[in-house]
C-alpha cells in the first residue's frame, strides 16, 4: 500500500522516487503511480509548508528545540490578536506566517444559501495563502539569544532587524502586532 499524506486542503499526496541528472530525489505528487513508495526513506521526512505544499526533504536538524517551538506557538495564541498564524521551524529560525485574507465575512449574512455559504467558507479557509511576517533567528545557541526581524515590502523588500533578546520576551513584545496597523510602524 503506497504512503500517502493528506494536507490541510484535504488533497492526498503520494511519495515517488525520481532519478535525474543530479541523482535520486523524492517528490510528492497528487497522482498515484505504480512507482509510488510504501514508506518515507530513512533520513527523509514529508512536511507541509504553511501554504499547504507537501514536500519530501532530508530530516531537519534544527537548533530550535521542540520546547521552544511549542512555547512560541502558545505565546502566539495568547498574545497575537490575529488568530490565523502559523509557526514554521527551520534550521536556526522560527517564522510566523499570517493569512492576510483570513478575516472573511459571514456568507450566511450576505444572502448566500446556507449550504453554499458553508461550502464557500470552507473552500476559502482551506485555500488561503500565508505570508511570512516575523522571523526569530537563533544567534547564540549557548545563551539561547534570538534576533527578530519583520518582513518589509518597501524598496527591495526582505527582512528588517528589530531587536535581540530572549525568545519569550521577543514573542510577547512583537507577535501582537501581526495583522495590525502597528506592524508597519515597527522599526
SSE order and pairing:
Blueprint: E1 4-6, E2 12-20, E3 23-29, E4 44-48, E5 54-58, H1 66-79, E6 85-89, E7 93-98, H2 114-126, E8 131-140, E9 145-152, E10 158-166, H3 167-174
Antiparallel strand pairs: 1-2, 2-3, 4-5, 6-7, 7-8, 8-9, 9-10
The overall average pLDDT, rounded, is: 90
- The tally of beta strands, per DSSP, is 10
Amino-to-carboxy terminus distance: 53 Å
Instruction: State the helical fraction.
Output: 10-25%
Overall number of domains: 2
Number of helices: 3
Tell the overall outline. Answer: flat
Taken as a percent bin, the fraction of beta residues is 35-45%
- Decide which structural class fits the backbone: alpha+beta
Q: Main β-sheet, in a few words? A: 5 strands, antiparallel
Low-confidence stretches: none
Order of helices and strands: EEEEEHEEHEEEH
Question: Strands of the largest sheet, in order across it?
Answer: 6-7-8-9-10
**Radius of gyration in whole Å, from Cα?**
20 Å
Please provide a written account of the structure:
With 187 residues, this protein is α+β, with helices and mostly antiparallel strands. It has 2 domains: 4-58, no CATH class; 66-185, no CATH class. It is 19% helix and 36% strand. The chain contains 3 helices and 10 strands. It has a 5-stranded antiparallel beta sheet with strand order 6-7-8-9-10. A hairpin with a 3-residue loop joins β6 (85-89) and β7 (93-98). α1 (66-79) runs parallel beside α3 (167-174). It is flat, with a radius of gyration of 20 Å. The termini are far apart. The mean pLDDT is 90.
Write a brief structural summary.
The chain is an alpha+beta fold. It is built from 3 helices and 10 strands; from the N terminus they run E-E-E-E-E-H-E-E-H-E-E-E-H.
Amino acid at each position: 500500500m503506497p504512503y500517502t499524506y493528506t494536507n490541510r486542503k484535504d488533497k492526498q499526496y503520494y511519495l515517488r522516487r525520481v532519478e535525474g541528472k543530479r541523482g535520486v530525489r523524492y517528490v510528492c505528487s497528487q497522482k498515484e503511480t505504480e512507482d509510488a513508495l510504501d514508506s518515507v526513506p530513512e533520513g527523509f521526512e514529508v512536511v507541509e509548508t504553511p501554504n499547504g505544499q507537501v514536500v519530501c526533504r532530508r530530516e531537519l536538524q534544527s537548533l530550535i528545540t521542540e520546547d521552544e517551538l511549542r512555547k512560541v506557538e502558545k505565546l502566539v495564541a495568547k498574545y497575537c490578536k490575529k488568530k490565523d498564524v502559523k509557526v514554521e521551524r527551520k534550521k536556526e529560525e522560527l517564522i510566523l506566517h499570517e493569512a492576510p485574507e483570513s478575516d472573511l465575512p459571514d456568507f450566511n449574512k450576505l444572502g448566500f444559501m446556507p449550504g453554499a455559504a458553508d461550502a464557500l467558507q470552507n473552500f476559502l479557509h482551506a485555500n488561503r495563502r500565508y505570508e511570512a511576517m516575523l522571523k526569530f533567528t537563533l544567534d547564540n545557541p549557548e545563551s539561547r539569544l534570538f534576533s527578530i526581524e519583520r518582513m518589509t515590502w518597501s524598496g527591495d523588500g526582505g527582512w528588517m532587524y528589530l531587536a535581540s533578546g530572549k525568545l519569550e520576551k521577543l514573542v510577547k513584545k512583537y507577535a501582537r502586532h501581526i495583522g495590525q496597523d502597528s506592524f508597519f510602524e515597527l522599526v
